[in-house]
Design goal:
The protein is α+β, with helices and mostly antiparallel strands and 390 residues long. It is 34% helix and 16% strand. The chain contains 15 helices and 14 strands. Helix 1 packs antiparallel against helix 14 and helix 2 runs parallel beside helix 5. 52% of the residues are buried.
């Protein structure tokens, strides 16, 4: 007998995608998660299933929230760019012009543009940070403030797997701008979404319990030195007991700590894709346009692959804009075909599940367009789930 899934919304043509989601639930490849697709400013598909807890006693519902790891990094970038739009700093100002205590390389000053495109040289916390509680936000900001850049700012690309949010928050605090958490709450209210760097106390019962489905979600990163430094400092970022704790769910951790749902992410990507969207109005045309243009490209020392970064997002070879997180969650917008997709999961594993669903989405789009050969030639599966990390 099939395990129950719930289709909250579905327009015509998504039956094969729903069937694949049902299969993931039935086979246990997905213990609990959700998929959402937005098109033209409206939901096209929202489906969820499985359980929200380890005991499999609490069904995944429309209210369930889950940590999506680095899928949330674009929210950090949007907070920083909103501070630029509001006049708190310039995107190419030296960081030390606003944050004098920030230890930098005088001959190659760090800028916000470098931080947002993962080129600040502070792509891991210091060795001393291994002993800092991951919920101690101030201590982690101070660790980054006082350490030397590990590479020349602006030159080497290495995803800031754990440091991204604390670097931005340190700079925002120095300029008197609201925090990443505050900006994200403001954006969430404006969109009618649930995007949280630290949930509200009343939302604690809604947060799903992460469940490792093997070691594949961490092994590729822990196999090299930079990956170990990035994900094991501070200790606890990969510890499921920490990740299930209410104190962690309440704490802001801008690089990996976004807690949300699939509809909120799909809605966000739909909005930011449109020149008349709320994000575009907040940022202004120049900053909004920069979201979809390459700021840095080349070999990423953390991801071990060639990556194109805009300001907070990955851009794939099709021009799709998105971000994935370690464990399997992922979200993106496809400008070629006008859809935004988000997949969230509590089952920590590889990204083969979202790949499986994305294949069905592509097939549905081919059927809709009625020209399979042309669509296949111009567009392939989004690749963010192939380059996901912390």
């Amino acid at each position: 007998m099939s395990a129950a899934i719930r289709v909250q919304h579905s327009s015509r043509g998504w039956g094969p995608v729903i069937a694949r989601f049902q299969e993931l639930i039935d086979t246990g490849r997905e213990p609990g998660g959700s998929l959402a697709i937005w098109r033209g400013g409206a939901p096209a598909l929202v489906v969820h299933g499985g359980s929200a807890d380890l005991a499999q006693e609490i069904p995944w519902s429309a209210d369930t929230l889950v940590q999506v790891f680095s899928t949330g990094k674009p929210l950090v970038a949007l907070a920083a760019l909103r501070a630029v739009a509001d006049g708190h700093l310039g995107i190419d100002d030296p960081v030390t012009a606003h944050w004098p205590a920030y230890r930098d390389t005088p001959d190659h000053p760090t800028t916000l543009r470098m931080i947002l495109s993962h080129r600040s040289g502070k792509h891991t916390f210091s060795p001393a940070a291994a002993g800092i509680d991951p919920r101690d936000h101030a201590a982690l900001v101070h660790d980054l403030e006082t350490m030397e850049p590990q590479t020349v700012p602006g030159q080497a690309i290495a995803e800031h797997a754990s440091t991204y949010g604390h670097l931005v928050d340190g700079l925002l605090a120095a300029t008197g701008a609201p925090t990443v958490r505050a900006y994200t709450e403001s954006l969430s209210r404006a969109l009618g979404a649930r995007l949280r760097f630290g949930v509200r106390p009343g939302e604690l019962p809604l947060v799903a319990e992460p469940e490792p489905l093997g070691n594949e979600w961490t092994d590729p990163h822990l196999a090299h030195e930079l990956g170990r430094a990035a994900l094991l400092r501070p200790a606890g970022l990969l510890d499921t007991e920490t990740l299930r704790s209410p104190s962690w769910h309440l704490a802001p951790f801008g690089a990996v700590g976004l807690i949300t749902d699939a509809p909120s992410l799909a809605l966000l990507y739909d909005d930011l894709s449109r020149p008349d969207g709320h994000v575009a109005r907040l940022l202004g045309g120049e900053l909004w346009s920069a979201l979809s243009h390459t700021a840095a490209a080349g070999a990423d020392g953390f991801l071990r692959d060639d990556i194109r970064w805009s300001l907070g997002f990955q851009i794939d070879d099709n021009g799709d804009l998105g971000m994935g997180g370690i464990g399997g969650s992922c979200a993106w917008h496809s400008p070629a075909h006008g859809y935004s997709l988000a997949y969230v999961t509590r089952g920590l594993h590889r990204h083969d599940r979202v790949t499986y669903l994305a294949d069905a989405v592509e097939s549905a789009l081919r059927a809709e367009h009625g020209d399979p050969a042309a669509l296949r030639a111009e567009h392939g599966d989004p690749a963010f789930h192939e380059h996901a990390e912390g």
